[in-house]
Prior knowledge:
The chain is of the alpha/beta class. The protein has helices at residues 40-46, 54-70, 92-99, 117-123; strands spanning 5-10, 13-18, 22-25, 30-33, 74-77, 104-108, 125-128, 132-134, 137-139, 153-155, 161-166, 170-179, 183-185, 205-209, 214-217. The strands form 2 sheets. Strands 8, 9, 10, 11, 12, 13, 14 and 15 form an 8-stranded mixed β-sheet that branches. Strands 1-2-3-4-5-6-7 form a 7-stranded mixed β-sheet.
Amino acid sequence: MKIKEQTITFNKQQLILNNQRSIFWKSEKTLILSDLHLGKAAHFRKHGIAIPMDTTIADLNRLERLVDYYQPVQVIVVGDLVHAGINQEVLLLEQFKTRYPTLLLHLVKGNHDRLSKQMTDRFNIHQHDEIFELQQIQFKHHPIDAEDQSSFRISGHLHPGVNLVIPPRRQLRLPCFMVSDHQIILPAFSKFTGLDSKELSTAYQSYAVTDDLIFPIPKNRL
Length: 222
């Protein structure tokens, strides 16, 4: 797995975006991601759609590689850690936590998360129902309007993507970070998700990611 990085300044803090769909906040020793959707493949299989477990295992392996690489003291998941209840794939999270017993795991509750207190205690997850704040940066699953100047927020939920035209006539859709002066919208960490590639406000700068690259997209590309 290759890790490529793009450093930005957000509310006077240096944040490292990477092509593995997460952010490392070095001064806080914090890894930030969103929309892991653990158990989604098993949920589909339950309803007769043949999706292999390999997708979930690959996502958790990638998370482990990031933790090994950055050595954070905590991970903030900005919503949708779990897709729909507890199943055999969600229980893989317990194995992850066993490998990193001192790692703090914060979950800002997303619209899919259905973890009971019994389960958050079992997985040793610090769950925040609405919002979590660190150094005057808010973490909330749903984004605010890009023009809102009242706070600084890191969100997920939208699974943002960008459409690129590759000469001569090939189109490519890639996940991306969306960054404005007051907000960052994270790409979905899970690779088993759709992409919302509608055009957002020009207040956002997008950073597209592939398995090997992260790069800014010119706002005037159209």
